[in-house]
Backbone:
């Protein structure tokens, strides 16, 4: 029995990432209804918005779903209270110390998964008592690790050090990629970028189209002095690159970034001045299609790849 399927009570070991401005109740419920695990991305939501999103998700699916909870969220105690009150079964924590809330959530019967980008932080999460770990390579979109460890290297290194279930993330968007990650030791995969390009995603249509049109080399990891983030190379990104050429200070970079730029880009569709967060796998995303269809395509391709590999010989 697959450990993640058993832990979450899902049909497929496939998780949809809880991305800010993209992962609302419509996407989460669609993925959960299709047999995976849908996640609501709470990092871009006010407390009352998250409460409404969870209620709508519960009305749209009777399957398990989760909430992604960035530990740096300013009103995190309010999010925690909502999650407990509304009986959310699973929480994915990220961007912070897992010791802070893990035991408290588990005491209320909630499964806790923590997202890491290195072996060092995987060990800290393991010591904190989380139920599973997401190890995310630097190919991933959005906020990322400073060490630029690729998924292909990160997964076996983390697998070697932990005993709890391991979920691979970063650069995965196909069934073949899913099989590769699980061959390296993952129990499941978490996929973000591919689910941005769906009708159910709350991202702006213009951003979805940008993802579909992206090619190899169109994204770059940057702003490590603040929080590392992978961005599409639009006009805002070029300003960041120019700032680096001018030896900008951390304070100058922070002023350039400002506030609300991710919302401006991904949610409001400002492709020029917005922050457009997406993974390297965007070069393999060529269309916008329903989340359920994507889940089925990935699982079918996974199974076909399994059969193909079984015929290989040395």
Residues:
């Amino acid at each position: 029995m697959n450990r993640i399927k058993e832990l979450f009570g899902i049909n497929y070991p496939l998780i949809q990432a809880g991305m800010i401005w993209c992962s609302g109740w419509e996407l989460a419920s669609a993925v959960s209804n299709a047999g995976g695990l849908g996640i609501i991305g709470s990092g871009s939501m006010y407390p009352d918005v998250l409460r409404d999103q969870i209620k709508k998700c519960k009305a749209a699916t009777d399957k398990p779903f989760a909430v992604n909870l960035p530990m740096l969220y300013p009103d995190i105690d309010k999010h925690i209270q909502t999650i407990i009150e509304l009986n959310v079964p699973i929480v994915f924590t990220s961007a912070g110390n897992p010791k802070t809330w893990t035991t408290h959530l588990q005491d209320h019967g909630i499964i806790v998964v923590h997202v890491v980008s290195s072996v060092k932080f995987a060990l800290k999460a393991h010591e904190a008592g989380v139920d599973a770990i997401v190890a995310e390579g630097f190919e991933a979109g959005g906020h990322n690790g400073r060490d630029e460890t690729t998924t292909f290297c990160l997964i076996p290194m983390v697998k070697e050090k932990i005993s709890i279930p391991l979920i691979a993330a970063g650069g995965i968007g196909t069934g073949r990629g899913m099989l590769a990650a699980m061959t390296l030791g993952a129990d499941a995969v978490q996929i973000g970028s591919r689910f941005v390009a769906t009708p159910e995603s709350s991202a702006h249509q213009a951003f979805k189209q940008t993802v579909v049109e992206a090619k190899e080399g169109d994204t770059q990891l940057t702003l490590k002095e603040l929080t590392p983030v992978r961005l599409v190379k639009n006009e805002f990104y070029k300003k960041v690159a120019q700032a680096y050429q001018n030896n900008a200070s951390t304070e100058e970079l922070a002023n350039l970034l400002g506030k609300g730029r991710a919302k401006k880009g991904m949610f409001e569709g400002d492709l020029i001045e917005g922050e457009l967060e997406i993974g390297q796998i965007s070069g393999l995303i060529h269309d916008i299609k329903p989340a359920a269809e994507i889940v089925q395509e990935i699982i079918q391709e996974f199974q076909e790849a399994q059969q193909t590999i079984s015929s290989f010989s040395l």
Q: What stands out?
A: The chain has a mean pLDDT of 96.
